[in-house]
Design brief:
single chain; mainly alpha; 66% helix; globular; membrane
Amino acid sequence: MEREQWTHKREYILAMAGNMVGLGNVWRFPYLCYKNGGGVFLLPYCVLALLSGVPLFLMENALGQFTQEGTITCWKKLCPLLEGVGYAIMVIRTYSTIYLVILAYSLFYLLSSFASVLPWTTCSNDWNTDGCVELTTPNMTSQHYAEFGVNSTSKAPNNSAVMEFWERRVLSMSGGIEELGSVQWELCACLLACWLACYFCIWKGVKSTGKVVYVTAVFPYVMLAILLVRGLTLPGAWQGVVYYLRPDFTRLTRLQVWIEAGTQVFYSYGVAAGTINTLGSYNKKNNNCYKDSLWLCALNSATSFVAGFAVFSILGFMAHQQGVTMDNVVESGPGLAFIAFPQAVAMMPVPQLWAVCFFIMLIMLGLDSLFGGLETIASSVIDLFPGQMRQPWRREMFLAVFCLVSFLLQILLVTEGGIYVFQLLDYYGCNGACLLCVALAECVAVGWAFGADRMCDAIKDMSGQRPCLLFKFCWRYITPLLCLASFIHYAVQNEPLTSNRGHQFPGWSYGLGWVMAFSSVLMMPVWAILNICRTKGSLRERLCILCRPVEGATGITPQDYSAGLPFQTEMKS
């Protein structure tokens, strides 16, 4: 069977946009903007997007289309010495499936939003404590909040109704990772539903994915537009917008601001994660990947910026209702999605409607990114073993087994101590430093081994446009140096993982975390050593052979190289 291709180009655009525009655009970028100088944060963000995000995105997208291969075989055939890059990405992608539990939380909240009274607004439920405080009643004045000890310099107490719903109803949090406790079966059912949704989105390959993205990629924009219009019409909304964009130029002198901007670019653009390469590999060879990449990167950054208006207008309304400053309502990550925003929508008229809109948007945003990761894993295995895996129903069976095993393992994440397991996997297994190592290796493979000039030639042959000279310099010098500097900063500034409430993890968990972190990065030197040992000749001859593409795999012939050393013959699976 031949390798699949997109039926229509718009399916590819929607799939790529859905993969790029994810939860981080809604719950992380606006917070970083506010935290790091408001509108001033856009300067380091745009600079680093131009010097690292866009070049890496274009490189991975073009390589996928050029080689027509998945993540592992793409790097295996382009630069056999760095074949381990593909395996490192596979390990990281496997760890990243833990984010399906975020969709399970969102689904749990969505189902709870259909109640006549939102369950996180009252203290009369079985899970509430005697000290529970209701802080989400519509039309409540600042005097009412003062009665509960909430003022302009203090956040809502930990025993608020919305906090107790999150910690005691959804998570049933235990005291630590040592106390896993029992399985939360309702949350487990939500997790199973999310895995089934992901499976049926991609089980038939791009034929099914191409149809699903018409909903999963477009619907979040509809919901975001609705929430934006509603948010900007609420009292106090513009207070939030001012906090979002108020410039503080002194922040530009702080290294941490630039590091966080670069980190956001990596996560937001989805580089060094294999999905860009995979989705691009289903394009026709003559697709204009250069123009597509530039427009998709612009769309991603614009979405992040606009999402900030929707989020901060609603947080501004929340601060206005409570009579507190913005500092006391601004959250990032799960704190925004499952505490701050549910509390805010409960203060609006018809709160169920806005809660449903918000959580459907979260589910759709996460679903696109997650089934893109599953497609990366599936296509890599199929391209690695094409003779066996391209037989009828082999893909479906492989995905069924992978999803079933992953679901069974992730039952740990829906136990009473599951949130601590999630934090451990998120902090170490999906560490940003691992992605930086992968990105650095990719730049070395393309910029130096394959050659930046040849990469530009390949893009011109496919798209009819030669990339800007800046991209060539980025692939060879600027992007790898930025990745290296960021990695050093990560290593120097690394701090032990603690929970949101300051809970210290036991010593053995840190050891397990570092094993997970190194399990991906070590794939690169391990495969490099293995390939060196399997290649004949002196060490210099072996390195020269392994730094060249497999003959015929990329359209580059031996005559394109001046040295007389032989090409690496295509390695059998």
